[in-house]
Amino acid sequence: MKILTFFLLAFSLTTSFAQTKPEVTIAPAKVRHSGHVDLRGTGFTPKANVYSHLRRPDGTEFPVLPMMTNDRGEFTHDIDTLILSAGTHEVWVVDERSKTSSNVARFEVTVEQQ
Question: What is the pLDDT along the chain (114 residues), one digit of tens a residue?
C-alpha cells in the first residue's frame, strides 16, 4: 500500500508541476511598414534560452534570434518593421530546455496609412 501511495503522490506532483504550453502574442496585428510590433512570450522555462523564428510572407525565414526568459518564464521583444516586406509575417518561439514550441502568431506589415 505504501508503494502505491508513493507512486500516486509522485504522479500527482509531476502532473501538477507540468509546464503549460508556451504562448506568444503580437500587438498590433496590423502595422505600418515603419512601425514596431511588440512580441510577448509566457509559459517558457524560467531563466532559460528561447529561440525566436520569424517567417517572411514569401515563406523564407530570418536567422533565428536567441533570447533569455526572466524568472517567470516570460520575455518581451520589439520587432522593428522597417526592414520587413509588406505582407503577413509569422513568429513562433522554441524553448531550448523543454524542446517545446509556442503557437504561431501572425502580424501584417502594410505600406498603407492606418
Answer: 555 444 444 444 444 444 579 999 999 999 999 999 999 999 999 999 999 999 999 999 999 999 999 999 999 999 999 999 999 999 999 999 999 999 999 999 999 765
Superfamily of domain 20-110: Macroglobulin (MG2) domain (2.60.40.1930)
Domain residue spans in the chain?
Answer: 20-110
pTM of the entire structure? 0.80
Report the candidate in 114, 110, 104, 111 with the shortest Cα–Cα distance to residue 39.
Answer: 104
